[in-house]
Amino acid sequence: MKIGILQPGLVPDVILQEVGDYDTQFRQLLAGQGFDFETWKVVNGDFPAGVDAADGWLITGSRHGAYEDHPWIAPLEDLIRAIYASGKPLIGVCFGHQIIAQALGGKVEKSDRGWVVGPTLYRYDDKVRLVNAWHQDQVVALPEGAEAVASSEVCRYAAIHYPGHAYTVQPHPEFRRDFTQALIAHRAPGVVPPDLVSDAASKLDMPLDSAEIGAQFARFFREKRLA
């Protein structure tokens, strides 16, 4: 099964050299599942010819806001709606989670609750999962037909299921310790409040439940179901 990775953001060069790009992390998260991958850097205007260029689709994170005015936002939303209509499975993470909701009629805003960074607890129906996060924007209104399946203390719609079509999450199961540590070193200064940075750094060695969400992604790609 071929997974098309749509990349709406670029990792800073210093982080890229240390730990790799956004798509590399998803290839690692989904390694051993029998998937093939191809990446399109939509942030640079690089788009696939159409929805049939892959069997399933994944939209990564980005430093950009889904509501910002960039020339690639509208074409990406058009592609999301085309993927949704085709019935091909679609996964979105962080920005991907937000842009899918926005493209399908939901709403995304910069949260008045501020930044969420580092290992964070998310409540699913069956359990609590600890996953890395790095965001300030949130989905604040669901598209019609979508259902929230996870939340956190500051994020009501932390995971969204679009039955038979898509599954999206606000946190970053693909972020490993080294990547979050690199973000703390190179992206947090002057942007993220110091107390949040210190708290995130203190939790970097906590065991994460990222592999469980990665397994959810793989299951959804193959069967379009969460469990």
From TrEMBL:
InterPro entries: ChyE-like, Class_I_gatase-like, GATASE. Residues 68-176 form the Glutamine amidotransferase domain. The keyword Ubl conjugation does not apply. One of its GO terms (molecular function) is transferase activity. Keywords: Glutamine amidotransferase, Transferase. GO terms for cellular component: cytosol. The keyword Transferase applies. PANTHER family: GLUTAMINE AMIDOTRANSFERASE YLR126C-RELATED (PTHR42695:SF5). This is GMP synthase-like glutamine amidotransferase. It comes from Salipiger aestuarii. The lineage of its organism: Bacteria, Pseudomonadati, Pseudomonadota, Alphaproteobacteria, Rhodobacterales.
